[in-house]
Specification:
Blueprint lengths: L1 H18 L4 H8 L3 H14 L16 H13 L5 H10 L6 H10 L15 H14 L4 H5 L1 E10 L29 E9 L2 E2 L3 E3 L5 H18 L7 E3 L9 H9 L3 E2 L12 H14 L5 H14 L2 H9 L1 H10 L8
Parallel strand pairs: 1-5, 5-6
Antiparallel strand pairs: 1-2, 2-3, 2-4
Protein name: Transposase
InterPro entries: Homeodomain-like_sf, HTH_SB, RNaseH_sf, Tc1-like_DDE_dom, Transpos_IS630-like, Transposase_5, Transposase_Tc1-like, WH-like_DNA-bd_sf
Pfam families: DDE_3, HTH_SB, HTH_Tnp_Tc3_2
């Protein structure tokens, strides 16, 4: 009882001296107690207007405040660290807890486990070029982006997106399985383009793509697509910096046809809005459950044509946000 009474008197004295505008250092020296103790008493008084022991809201935590802060700090500094590694690090300092306890602590601090986005590796030269592109085009008018014909190629696998599904089932059973095929069961390569006015027809690429084969795509499709999408004669064509796209003969063809090609920074799929349409296309196609490559090609072309004009227009309307994101990331990867 004497010890409790003494502790209460010390706490009250600390609060009185603090109200009298004494600093923590002077209070610590006057009462011969650690400064951290003085700070803790004052902090508690500020928050609860009392220094008495308050009833606990529940079972005391197994981890000390110091260990909790360390867990949060480690997870923030090393986002790829696993729960097992965090569990071992806490055990090393004498605090052995379950993984769910660690997970709960991280959740309270706003940290959640998420699948990491896959982004192209960016060197300093790539970031510099991306930043230059974004700053130079940030002030372009909306009409300028409406004149751009965006293009790209992509590979679509027969069973690629069908392989991963979540199902409810009992433990140690093999019910509700999904059949898989080696190497995705085959795939097709397609080329397509779009503008704010909508999508144009899709072109399947037979065999291996090379510079000569790529050149036939704009030769046979570019002028017709620009005409159907009503881009006018002074439209701008976008393509990435794939060596097949930048072949001398191909670039000479653009020059002879007086087609302006948008100067494009390397490693920048996030700056091409057609990537959003590719993702939506692949999801829609695999919902159709094609059983062979012929059906896969048919569904791809059908779903591509179903993409609404409003969806295309929205992607182009919000394009300046991508440029702003690149500038904010100083040329680095963005969420797009």
């Amino acid at each position: 009882m004497k010890n409790k009474e003494h502790t209460r008197q010390v706490r009250d004295t600390v609060v009185k001296k603090f109200k009298a505008r004494f600093g923590c250092k002077k209070i610590s020296q006057a009462l011969n107690i650690p400064r951290s103790t003085v700070q803790a008493i004052i902090l508690k008084w500020k928050e609860y207007q009392t220094t008495a022991n308050l009833p606990r809201p529940g079972r005391p935590s197994k981890l000390s405040a110091h260990t909790r802060r360390r867990l949060i700090r480690d997870a923030a500094k090393r986002p790829i660290i696993t729960l097992d590694e965090l569990q071992r690090s806490t055990a090393e300092v004498g605090d052995s807890v379950h993984r769910t306890t660690i997970s709960r602590i991280l959740h309270k601090s706003g940290l959640y486990g998420r699948v990491a986005r896959r982004k192209p590796f960016l060197k300093d030269i790539h970031k510099k070029c991306r930043l230059k592109f974004a700053t130079s085009h940030l002030g372009d008018t909306p009409n300028m982006w409406k004149k751009v014909l965006w293009s790209d190629e992509t590979k679509i696998e027969l069973f690629g997106n069908n392989a991963k599904r979540y199902v409810w089932r009992k433990s140690n059973t093999a019910e509700h399985t999904i059949p898989t095929v080696k190497h995705g069961g085959g795939s097709i390569m397609v080329w397509a383009c779009f503008s704010s006015a909508g999508t144009w027809k899709m072109v399947e690429i037979d065999g291996k793509m090379d510079g000569a084969k790529y050149r036939t795509i704009p030769e046979e499709n570019l002028m017709e697509s620009a005409k159907d999408l009503r881009l006018g004669r002074r439209f701008v064509f976008q393509q990435d910096n794939d060596p097949k796209h930048k072949a001398k003969s191909t670039m000479e063809w653009f020059k002879n046809k007086h087609i302006q090609v948008l100067e494009w920074p390397s490693q920048s799929p996030d700056l091409n809005p057609i990537e959003n349409l590719w993702k939506e296309l692949k999801t829609a196609v695999h919902k159709c459950s094609p059983s062979n490559l012929t059906e896969l090609e048919l569904f791809c072309k059908e779903e591509w044509e179903k993409i609404s004009v409003s969806r295309c227009a929205k992607l182009i309307e919000t394009y300046p946000k991508r440029l702003t994101a690149v500038i904010a990331a100083k040329g680095g990867a963005t969420k797009y």
